[in-house]
# Entry
Amino acid sequence: MENEFIIKGNFYYCDEKRELVEKTGSYCIVRDGISEGLFDRIPKEYAGLPVRDYSAFLIIPGLIDLHTHAPQYTFRGLGMDMELLDWLNTYTFPEECKYSSLKYADSAYDIFVRALKNSYTTRAVIFGTIHAPATLLLMEKLERTGLITQVGKVNMDRNAPAYYVETTEKSICETEAFLKSAQKYLRTKPILTPRFIPSCSDKLLAGLGEIQQRTRLCVQSHLSENRSEIEWVRELCPDAAFYGDAYDRYGLFGNNCRTIMAHCVSSGDEETERMAHNGVFVAHCPASNMNLSSGAAPVRRYLERGIRVGLGTDVAAGSSLSVASEMVSAVQASKMRWRYVSQDKPLSLEDVFYMATRGGGEFFGQVGSFEKGFEFDALVIDDSGAESALKFNDRDRFLRSVYLEKECRLEAKYVRGSEIRLGA
Amino acid sequence: MENEFIIKGNFYYCDEKRELVEKTGSYCIVRDGISEGLFDRIPKEYAGLPVRDYSAFLIIPGLIDLHTHAPQYTFRGLGMDMELLDWLNTYTFPEECKYSSLKYADSAYDIFVRALKNSYTTRAVIFGTIHAPATLLLMEKLERTGLITQVGKVNMDRNAPAYYVETTEKSICETEAFLKSAQKYLRTKPILTPRFIPSCSDKLLAGLGEIQQRTRLCVQSHLSENRSEIEWVRELCPDAAFYGDAYDRYGLFGNNCRTIMAHCVSSGDEETERMAHNGVFVAHCPASNMNLSSGAAPVRRYLERGIRVGLGTDVAAGSSLSVASEMVSAVQASKMRWRYVSQDKPLSLEDVFYMATRGGGEFFGQVGSFEKGFEFDALVIDDSGAESALKFNDRDRFLRSVYLEKECRLEAKYVRGSEIRLGA
# Structure
C-alpha cells in the first residue's frame, strides 16, 4: 500500500516537443515509484488508494543537476576574479586537496549534502576529489537522503600541483577499489570521472576506457569550456582532431558509454557532430560560464542538432546549487549570445524547463515528466511567499516559481515515489 | 542621547578609489545621523555613548537602488520572452494602468514597500505611474518605513495606448499638483519623471524643463537601452544629435539638473562625453538588460571617463529588488562584454560594490561610506546561514555575503542613523 498512492494538485511538465503542459486539479497515480499518468478524475481501478492533496501548490518534476563539484561547495561565492586555469590553481586544487582528511570531508560533505537535499534538485551527477575514502563518505551521506545521484572519484595524473596529483597507476588502482566499495548503494552510483584532458595522460585515459568497457559505467568530464584551456588541449594532444576526440579515442565519449560533457561553450562543428552522433549529454552551466568569463554555449544549435542537453550548477564556479537559478541564467546567457554572437533564437523558459527536467532526466532513464511510465520525481512548491496584488493564471504561477524561487518554499519533494525528509 | 551612539563591528566599504576597506572590530561614532568616522578604540570624548555591539556580524553601507518601477513589482518574474517595446505594450502599460484605482494601488504598494523595507536597499529612486494620487500613496507608505527615496509621477503624452496616456496639459498640470502635495514628506522626495523620449512630446519636455528650472528638482528617465528604441528615437527626434541630446535640449540632462539616466547600454561617444560633461548619473541595470536582450552597458568605459555610475534593479524587467544580486549580474555582464564585445577589463567585485554604495549614494549626497561626514546608512548582515566547513578571512566573509545574499539574514538596518523596523 505504501508503494501505491495518488498525488492531487496542479502539475507542470514539458512534453517531448519542449512544450509546457499544465494539468491543474489533476491526479497522478504513483505505483512502485512510477507514474501511471495524470488523470482529471481518479480512475475506477485506483479508487481505494490514499490521496495526498497538494491543491494549494504547484507540482513540477524534480530538477536534474548534471554537473556539480561537491568538494567546492565550501568556497562558493569566492574567487570570481579569474578565468578557468588560474582559478583551478589558486582556489580549487588547494581546497580539493583537503579532502585527504576524512574529518574535513565529513564536516564539509555534511553541509553540501544537506543543502542538496533541501534544494529543488532530485538527481545529480557529482564530482568528488581524487580521494576514494572521502568520495565514498560523500556517497554514504547522499544515499541516506533518498536523492538519486552518480558520484565520481576524480582522476588526474598530470599538470596539477604536486600536492594534488596521482601517479597513473595509483589513479587506476584507487578507482578500481573505489568502484568495488561503491557497489553497496541503491540510489548512489559511481561514475568514471577523468577531470579533463589537461589533467589526464593518455595512459590514464586508456586505463579508464578499459574499466568502462568492462563495467559499462557512465562517464563525466569537461569539454571546450574556456579559450586558454582549449588551446592547451590542442598543444597537449596534437593528434586529436578536436578536444572531444581526445576522449573518444579511448571510448570515453558517448556511443556505448553514457557520457556527460560539461560546458561545451566553444565546440566547433566537428565536435558538435561527434557529440550528436555519439549521443553525448551536454551539461550546460551558464552561470559558471559567465563567472569564469568563458562565454555562452550555443545551446540552441545543440538542441536543433538533436543533442541531449541538461543543466549543471557547477559549484563553485557557479555559486549556488539552484537549478532554477541556472534556468534563469540560461535564458539570460542565450540572450547575450543572440545580441552579440549569433542570430540563434534565445532560449525560452520552456526550453530551459525542458533541459532542467527531461533533458537532464534522460541521463537517468525515464525521468523528468509525469507521463505514464516516468519515475515519479516531484517538487511540491508553495508559491504563496512570492506576494503580489495580482491573481495569476496557472502558467504565470509556474513562471514565477522559477524566477522567484527564493520567495517560494518547498512543501514536499519526491524521488522515485519516495518522499524526501526535508530540513536538517 | 538618542541621536548619539556607537556601532561596534566589522565594517566594509569602498574608498573613493574604489578600493575595499576592511575595519574589523571597529567603532563607528554616529551623531545626528552622521558618521564621525571609524576608530580602533572609542575616543575619549565619546566615552559615555551607548554602544550597539554587532561584533558577530558584517556591516556594510546600505545599498542604493538608482532605478526601479514600484507598480511593476506585481508582475516580476513574468514576461521574460520579449524585447523592450513589445514588453512595454504587452505587460507593462496594461499593469500600470490599474493604478488609476487607489484600492489596487493600496494593496500593490503595500507589498512593494514591505519588500523594499526588508531588502538590502536603504535608498532608492523610483518610478510610479502617471497617476498622482497613487504615486502620493506610494510616497506615504515609503515615508513610514524610514527609507530615503525619490519618487516620480510618470509623464507620458504620446505613443502609448489610449488607456494609458495623458494630454500634454494634463500631464503638466497633474505634475504641478503632485509636487505640491508631495512637499510634506521628510524622507520621500518627488522627482521629475518623463518616461522616455518616445512617450514625451517636445512640448511636454519643455514644460518639465520649465518646472525643473523653477523647482531645482532632480530628474530620472531612460536612455539608449535597446536597439529598436534607439532607432525609434532617431526617427522621432531628427534634430537631436543623439538620444540624450533630446533631453538636454530641454534642460533635463544633468548640468544644473541632477539627473539619473537608466541603462545607457548603447551610448555612443558623443552621448558619453555629454554625460560626463553634464555630470549625469548612469543607473546600470544589468539583469534587466540581459532579460530584455538589450546587451551589457560599457560600464568600464563610463568609470574611466569619470561618469557617476550606480546600480538599478529595474523591476519588473529585473525580477527582484536585490541590489546585491545586481552586483553579481553586473560582474557577469561585464565578463560577457569582455568575451564578446570589447577588451575593456571586466568589473571586479570592488567596482560593483562601489557602484552599489558610493556610486549611487552620491546622488543623495555624502552617502555610501562610513568615513567621517557620511550619513550613516548601514546593513548589519548575519552570514552564519551561509554554511561552510571553511573559516574565512574578513574579506572573504564580505564577498560571500554578496554572492550568497539569499543565505544571509539582515540583523539590522540603519538609514541616516535611524534603525529601520524590519519585518511585516
